Amino acid sequence: MTLQRRFLLVATAVVVAAAVAVVAPVAQYVLFGVLLAYVLRPVHDRLAPSIGERPSAAVLVSVSTATVLAPIAVVIAVALRELLRLRAALAEGTVELETVELLAAAGGIDLRAELDQLTRRGLESGLGRVLDLFGGLTEVLVGLTVLLFVVYYLLADGDRLLAWTGRVIPLDGETQTALRRDLDRITWGVVVGNIAVAAVHGVLTGLVFGLVGISNVVFWVVVTTLLSLLPLIGASVVWLPMTAFLFMAGRPVDAAVVFAFGTAVISLSDNYLRPVITGHEARVSPGVMVVGIFGGVLAFGFAGLFVGPIVLAFAAVLVETLVEVDEPAGASQETPGAVEADGETDGDVESIDDGGV
């Protein structure tokens, strides 16, 4: 190894380590940006020939931002409205505090003690909480800005990035194509599959809630969809408490309807849809999906819901590719012995080795 190559290796290692340190604080937003750009890529490929690469990327970023912010705005608006309504009802005395206490006690909560403790701590920690809130908002705004720029430039310059990756990766074209095809299959199945299952759960929950006359159906659809991204938790976190609430509110028939629909339809749809959609398209074991999702959340935050299963599944693909690539080399190692036994020349052995590699 020449002195120049050693210097380049050391410099590259130092710069890569610095780059990892720079990206680490916003890694979750970068990963989300990569996934969102991947989902939007087919639409971009259809739209770009008509209006151009960069205008198409700008339009898709704007539309996706509005699509994400709209449900969040609905949830915040409904929550604020319900809090104001509850406050007015308590002030007018139209809400029986005993009923609320009974519901809280059913969940193991001493409502009066919690309210008293909250009141005492309110003045002491109010300023600190406000400062923490602004600090958290700043971090989120910076992260969202990074996410939007990642999506935009991956859409606008994604082809150049793929071409550069193909040049620097020391693999032949056939192997690169196969790995890219497998990664595409896994990513599409995991990302689109999980989102599709969550959306089905949200719609089903909204249907049964609307059937029994529960208000703010859109709010519950959004909340259930978000929670359904978590396996083994999902929609049951929404419809089970609602069942208990309806029963204790004197609506046993409605409670029975929600419980029966949630058990027989919503929960069972999770057991069938998630393996069928995500496992079939991505060909990922449901066990790998569960481990990947929860391990991914611990490692990457919310983005780990999708990144975790993709990493585990693609790791298996890389191992299989490594074995397949090494097999010809292993065969060529046995060939020289056989050739020498037959009395072949060294030149023939070298040509066989070259062909095997």
UniProtKB/TrEMBL annotation:
Compositionally biased spans, kind Acidic residues: 341-357
Membrane topology: Multi-pass membrane protein
Top-rank taxon, per record: Archaea
Residue segments, region Disordered: 329-357
Subcellular localization: Membrane
Principal place of residence: membrane
GO cellular component term, pick one: membrane
Keyword annotations: Membrane, Transmembrane, Transmembrane helix
TM region positions: 7-38, 58-80, 130-155, 186-210, 217-239, 245-268, 288-319
Entry's family note: Belongs to the autoinducer-2 exporter (AI-2E) (TC 2.A.86) family.
Name this polypeptide is given: AI-2E family transporter
Source organism of this protein record: Halobaculum halobium
